[in-house]
């Protein structure tokens, strides 16, 4: 299948175009991207997870060149303010906690110390967290001597500039770009897409179509009538307003998420501005109230008009149907609480490349793509649901979340942790054990028991080890340069 048509530009479209053109260059694909200039930019995909560096590396690009071109900053995790209750704060890091003792995970050792009266928080044993909260940054040691030295990092970037970078990259590799609107979709007798009719009268034929048309999902749900799995019963927020402003606050190496009365607000620091937004439930807040509330939080003058968005959390029932694969918002949407929008684009592309049709479409490959994509979305969904369900806030929206019945797999995870302190991991989990630990600790979800192998170590011995560990972490934090200094040195810019 040589002729590939990508419907839609933006982050999803140009990520797909760049990857296919680069990684499948030996197939000599004929790739055309239809920009769909009438579809506005969503503008919430500016925070990422560490996998973005793998994507950039897969194209042979230098991470610091991309950061320089996209006004990027470093990201060590997410700070959650007021989620448990007003005035409370905790951090979700991209790093490990402490040092395990053989097969005994570190958090079981901490449990033993807490039983002995120690009250040092788990976050004190996480180098990534401590660097972030001190607004410092240093690249991870590629050969860490201790487990707590192992951490990762992501970036915040201007998604529009990122798409421009990828467009330049992809077109140099031969990707053709058409700036036009799709007027109609022609379906062949076998139920496959035959061609796209543009507003200028042209018919663009293809063999494989990639739907990157955003929330409209023009191909996968519009033309091919794929159903949609609606998850709003678990995730109540269905609106967002985004508004960039001048940066006057600190250049933090982390995203900030602040819980509010009917949702939550994000702060994403870039070199040239700050991205702000309010994700909320329209059952509990009007559009005008949301915009007014967001404007009252801006740290500097607004740099654009407010961008109001409507969405339904969930995913297409069939993300790959017939000869069409949906990538990005056309495939599904999970609110940006954990910065997963871009990584879901990335993994969608990776799976497509692995299962790319050779002599023709194979039903088993389509089923596997849809199976694993569904699992991935469900795993991310469950992690996000935990934030809402575990909150201790008292407003009506939050009280309703606390009372809801959880998906079975999420309930099992929580039950096992509460009973034994053990962490359950399922197939296609995007978030690893440290992420779940940060949530359990942040929301005060405690285990009633622990791994009994922790009893092999006496309390004075554990106390001494942990004291030296926290001192070691603070020493590393003190010796690290500030985030602003790191950017100025590494990117050769004025941060």
Characterization of this structure:
With 495 residues, the chain is α+β, with helices and mostly antiparallel strands. 36% of the residues lie in helices and 18% in strands. The protein has 15 helices and 21 strands. β1, α1 and β2 form a beta-alpha-beta unit. The longest helix is centred in the last third of the chain and has 28 residues, at 363-390. It starts with a strand and ends with a helix.
Low-confidence stretches: none
Strand content: 15-25%
Task: Give the beta-strand count.
Answer: 21
- Which strand order does the major sheet show? 5-4-14-15-16-13-17
What is the CA-atom radius of gyration, in angstroms?
Answer: 23 Å
Average the pLDDT over all residues and give the rounded result. Answer: 95
DSSP summary: helix tally: 15
Binned, the helix content reads: 25-40%
Largest sheet: 7 strands, mixed
Question: How far do the termini sit from each other?
Answer: 46 Å
SS content category: alpha+beta
Which term fits the overall shape? globular
């Amino acid at each position: 299948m040589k002729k590939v048509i990508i419907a839609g530009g933006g982050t999803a479209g140009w990520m797909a175009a760049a990857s296919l053109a680069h990684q499948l260059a030996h197939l000599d694909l004929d790739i055309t991207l239809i920009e769909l200039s009438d579809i506005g930019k969503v503008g919430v995909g500016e925070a990422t997870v560490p996998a973005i560096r793998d994507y950039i590396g897969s194209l042979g690009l230098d991470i610091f060149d991309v950061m320089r071109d996209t006004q990027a900053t470093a990201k060590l995790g997410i700070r959650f303010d007021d989620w448990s209750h007003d005035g409370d704060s905790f951090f979700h890091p991209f790093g490990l906690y402490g040092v395990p003792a053989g097969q005994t995970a570190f958090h079981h050792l901490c449990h033993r110390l807490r039983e002995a009266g120690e009250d040092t928080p788990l976050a004190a044993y996480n180098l990534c967290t401590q660097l972030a909260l001190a607004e410092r940054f240093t690249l991870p040691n590629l050969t860490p001597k201790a487990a707590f030295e192992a951490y990762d990092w992501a970036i915040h970037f201007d998604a529009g500039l990122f798409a421009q970078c990828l467009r330049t990259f992809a077109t140099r590799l031969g990707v053709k770009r058409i700036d036009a609107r799709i007027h109609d979709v022609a379906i062949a007798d076998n139920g496959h897409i035959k061609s796209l009719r543009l507003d200028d009268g042209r018919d663009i034929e293809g063999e494989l179509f990639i739907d990157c048309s955003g929330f409209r999902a023009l191909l996968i749900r519009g033309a091919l009538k794929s159903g949609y799995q609606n998850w709003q019963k678990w995730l109540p927020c269905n609106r967002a307003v985004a508004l960039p402003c001048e940066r006057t606050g600190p250049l933090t190496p982390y995203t900030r998420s602040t819980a509010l009365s009917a949702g939550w607000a994000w702060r994403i620091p870039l070199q040239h501005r700050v991205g702000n937004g309010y994700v909320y439930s329209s059952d509990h807040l009007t559009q005008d109230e949301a915009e007014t509330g967001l404007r009252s939080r801006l740290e500097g003058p607004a740099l654009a008009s407010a961008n109001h968005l409507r969405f339904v959390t969930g995913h297409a029932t069939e993300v790959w149907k017939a000869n069409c694969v949906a990538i990005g918002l056309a495939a599904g949407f999970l609110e940006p609480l954990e910065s997963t929008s871009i990584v879901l684009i990335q993994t969608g592309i990776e799976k497509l490349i692995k299962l790319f049709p050779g002599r023709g479409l194979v039903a088993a490959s389509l089923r596997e793509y849809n199976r694993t994509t569904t699992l991935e979305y469900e795993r991310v969904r469950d992690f996000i649901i935990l934030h809402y369900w575990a909150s201790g806030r008292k407003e009506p929206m939050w009280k309703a979340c606390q009372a809801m019945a959880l998906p079975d797999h999420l309930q099992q995870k929580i039950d096992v942790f509460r009973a034994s302190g053990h962490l359950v991991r399922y197939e296609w989990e995007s978030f690893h054990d440290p992420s779940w630990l940060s949530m359990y600790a942040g929301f005060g979800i405690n285990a009633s028991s622990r791994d009994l192998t922790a009893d092999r170590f006496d309390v004075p011995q554990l106390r001494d080890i942990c004291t030296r560990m926290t001192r070691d972490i603070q020493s590393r934090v003190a010796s690290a340069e500030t985030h602003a200094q790191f950017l100025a040195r590494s990117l050769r810019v004025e941060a």
